[in-house]
Amino acid sequence: MILFLRDPVSRFISGFYSRQRKGQPRYYSEWSPKEKEIFEHFAIPNEIAVSLANKQAEDHALAIMALKSVQHFKPYSKWYVDIDYFKSRFEDILFIGFQESLDADFIKLKSILEIPQNITLPTDGIVAHKNPKDLNKSIDESGIKALREWYSEDFYFISLCEEIMSNKANAQAQ
Q: Measured between alpha carbons, how far is 64 from 68 in angstroms, rounded to an integer?
């Protein structure tokens, strides 16, 4: 297995804007009826996060529906059966990289897979499917806390994956 993971809050923000744009300009995927309701109501990701944090908010239920129904917001736990099963597949893991260290991790992966050094990641924003730089990516403190709680299993999974890669690196060094 080769996995690349991303901080769940950063992934949520990026996914919000990607789906708000319906994946454009690189892709196009029309909104589902639920996404239409969500993106016509919430203009920025902070609005979902703050509504998630405030159980008395009128749109709290809509924020929960958003996190449960938008594919880009779903937790990593949808990728694997359960943590114990994932741990049982330790030997099948070739590499786990992280968005936050993507360039360095891609270089490591190229070495492992013996990919020529002249192969690079795309730098063009559209080809790389990057969000525009000028988007409002800020999340209020209450929203950060609510998202960290919502994605608590993802944070555990990421720490487990970091530990796995650290153990693999230590084993290779010996």
A: 6
Report residue 171's pLDDT band, with 50, 70 and 90 as the boundaries. confident
Q: Express each pLDDT in 71-100 by its tens digit.
A: 999 998 888 888 999 989 989 999 999 999
The sign one gets for the Cα dihedral 88, 75, 124, 105 is negative
Domain ranges across the chain:
2-173
Q: Is the dihedral of CA 23, 41, 38, 72 positive or negative?
A: positive
Stretch 129-136: mean pLDDT: 83
Query: What does DSSP assign to residue 30?
Result: P
Whole-angstrom CA distances from 100 to 2, 4, 45, 128 are: 16, 10, 20, 15
Look at residues 86, 102, 144 and name the one whose alpha carbon lies nearest to residue 5: 102
Residue with tokens 């129904």: 69
pTM score > 0.85 for this model? yes
